[in-house]
Amino acid sequence: MSLPPPMPLEDAQARLLALAAPLPIERVDVEGALGRYLAAPLHARRTQPAADLSAMDGYAVAHGDLAGPWRIVGESAAGHPFAGAVSGGTAVRVSTGAVLPQGTGAVILQEDVARDAERLHLSGEAPHPAHKHIRPCGMDFADSHEVIAQGTLLGPAQVALALAAGHKHLPVCRLPRLVVIDSGDELAADPEACAPHQVPASNGAMVLALARALPVDARRLGPVEDTLEAITAALEASAEADVIVTSGGASVGDHDLVRPALEAWGASLDFWRVAIKPGKPILVATRERAGRRQIILGLPGNPVSSFVTAYHFLMPLLRALLGARDAVARQVTTRLAAPVRANGPRREFLRAQWDGAAVTPLTLQDSGALSSLSASNVLIDRPALAPAAATGDEVRVYLLASGGIA
Ligand SMILES: Nc1nc2c(c(=O)[nH]1)N[C@H]1C(S)=C(S)[C@@H](COP(=O)(O)OP(=O)(O)OC[C@H]3O[C@@H](n4cnc5c(N)ncnc54)[C@H](O)[C@@H]3O)O[C@H]1N2
Ligand code: MOO
After folding, report:
1. Which of 39, 97, 107, 400 has the greatest number of beta carbons closer than 10 A?
2. Class (C level, CATH) for 25-47+140-173
């Protein structure tokens, strides 16, 4: 059997992402949008601050009247502005966040004045420059200006900014529907009842857990036995899914039935095999059904191969469907705390521990070893044919937390 040559990772990711149009837009409560991606640019519905505000507790005086003494004529508290106007020789008590009274242009800190009933004189420093303790109208944003770009991840700061900008609802893409299917005759559904010839099904739960770092509507099927009928039936039971992930049966063995099952089910193969280690046999297929596209990722069964391909393909795909501006994981540059050997022709991702300053590759790199995956917090990116690298050499790593995007 002649196999297609494995594709470079970036080409394969670009090909997959080209299949993924953002899902239809819905409007949700600002607080409910946490963790999703903004589906259209957001413009402010108000100006912030809406007036000049005091940034400190103290006394507002006229801009050119910094020497004192002054007579206190009233108060402006947050939410309770002073109604009158201020002229030379007078001051208004102000609190942090209060609107500056008309006619004032400087705030003197309460620590810098001495007060005797309604009389006030300077005992410390006058502000320099005079407007030092003032937040000018529009400092943060102005009405109708864009405050959040389309495709931005909506985290705590964006939730607050959207509210501050006068929005109650935000446009986001609807949640991707994901089904993850474990397949293989050797898989035991119950890890407590696993015969010696079996292995507990764990990839599906792992992939689902990884995907759930994103807002998804996800469920799991299986384990499904290694027959064309069983795999096809599981695909058929995933009719509502935007994305179907299978794990196992992606390689070239006689029992590797995912490709034939996809064909029998009416899906067409987009690509198969990527030049990465682990994860080479990953396949991508699509099925058009009732005007809707389903994307199928066939992940290799070796647990770490499943993890690495879910990290580099499933997560970017879900982000693209969610309308994210940045879909693929970012890298961080750090230094090796131990040497690594020269790499072969496949770009390799080494399980490793990073302490924020340097990275230590783990000894056990077999693609079946979950123990070393569990002990790592990054993957070291070793380019194809990279020469041996020494302690202290720079390397690029992928952070495993949150699927690689902060
Ligand atoms: N002659 C060749 N053999 C293999 C090649 C090749 O190019 N030529 N590629 C190897 C590579 S690389 C990989 S990766 C594996 C992937 O194979 P499959 O995707 O067909 O995976 P399986 O054979 O079904 O399983 C491999 C391994 O993983 C365990 N597994 C599978 N599913 C699960 C699950 N859901 N939970 C836990 N563990 C699972 C399975 O028991 C096997 O031990 O192929 C190489 N072979
Ligand atoms: O790609 Mo396989 O994933 O080398 O073990």
Report:
1. 107
2. alpha beta
Report which residue type is found at 295. I
Look up the CATH architecture of domain 53-135.
Beta Complex (2.170)
46-85 pLDDT, tens digit per residue, is 999 999 999 999 999 999 999 999 999 999 999 999 999 9
What pLDDT is stored for residue 141 in this prediction?
A: 98
Atom index in ligand 2 nearest the CA of residue 304 equals 3
- Determine the atom of ligand 1 nearest the C-alpha atom of 280: 12
The closest alpha carbon to 197, from 184, 213, 183, belongs to 184
CA of 145 to the centre of ligand 1 (A): 53
Count of Cβ atoms closer than 10 Å to residue 57 Cβ: 16
User: How many CB atoms are closer than 10 A to CB 196?
Assistant: 5
249 CB-near residues (< 8 Å, 6+ apart): 183, 184, 226, 231, 255, 256, 257, 258, 298, 301
In 112-257, where does DSSP find H-type helix? Answer: 156-164, 203-211, 228-236
Helices (H), 34-175: 156-164
Query: What is the 203 CA–ligand 1 centroid distance (Å)?
Result: 11
Contact 247, 306 (CB under 8 A): yes
Class level of CATH domain 9-23+175-321: alpha beta
Q: Which of 251, 314, 312 is nearest to 280 (CA)?
A: 251
Instruction: Give, using CA atoms, the residue closest to atom 4 of ligand 2.
Output: 278
Which ipTM was obtained for this model?
A: 0.97
- Cis peptide bond N-terminal to 171, omega within 30: no
